[in-house]
Amino acid sequence: MGLPFSRIAVNAFPAQLHGDLLLKDVEDALQATGLPASALELEITENIALKYEDATGPLQRLHEMGVSIAFDDFGTGYASLSYLTRFPLSRIKIDRSFVQKITDSPQDAAIVRSLIGIAHNLGLEITAEGVETDAQALFLLKEKCEEAQGFLYGRPMSASDFEEYLRARTFFTPTVGDSLLFRH
């Protein structure tokens, strides 16, 4: 439709992580849609990673094709921090349960600040999930969190509503003085 976008994130399911099924599914989807591999991001949870350590091979091949791999809901599972280097990750997504309390809880603020630092030190991008207030967005912006998602920016919507939403918005590059990551 000619609208700009940087990537499309898709949740991977446990059944897809067996053998080369995921690799074939992704290759078929990219071919059928014409979507460049660099525009696709697969999201896996820590708990899935714990159960399917043998998935690192197919995920590595996808990563080599240009597909991004993200740990979704990071911080709520039981994975060791070593999983951040064991899997071919491009991004971690901080779970909303930490983000919700960053302005009220020094402990949650410290966890989020630390996760941002770990991600940056490992060369990973970071997304904060569940941002609902300007204060949360400002905290994340000051801590150099690259991206945020949540009800502050939009509610779930149909494809046609999303198209209209994109057409009606002007995006900008934020600076530390800005309280929102993008404006309406």
Features:
alpha/beta; 6 strands; 15% strand; disordered C terminus
SSE blueprint:
Blueprint (H helix, E strand, L loop, with lengths): L7 E4 L9 H13 L6 E6 H6 L4 H10 L2 E7 L8 H4 L4 E4 L1 H4 L6 H16 L3 E4 L5 H9 L4 E2 L10 H10 L16
Parallel strand pairs: 1-2, 2-3, 3-4, 4-5, 5-6
Give me a quick take on this structure.
By secondary structure, the protein is of the alpha/beta class.
* Integer-rounded radius of gyration: 17 Å
Q: Share of helix among residues? A: 25-40%
Count of distinct strands: 6
Head-to-tail CA distance between termini: 20 Å
Describe the main β-sheet briefly. 6 strands, parallel
| Beta-strand residue fraction | 5-15%
Q: Which structural category do the helix and sheet elements fall into?
A: alpha/beta
pLDDT average, as an integer?
85
Structural overview:
The chain is α/β, with parallel strands linked by helices and about 180 residues long. Helices cover about 40% and strands about 15% of the residues. The protein is built from eight helices and six strands, in the order βαβααβαβααβαβα. A six-stranded parallel β-sheet has the order 1-2-3-4-5-6. Strand 1, helix 1 and strand 2 form a beta-alpha-beta unit.
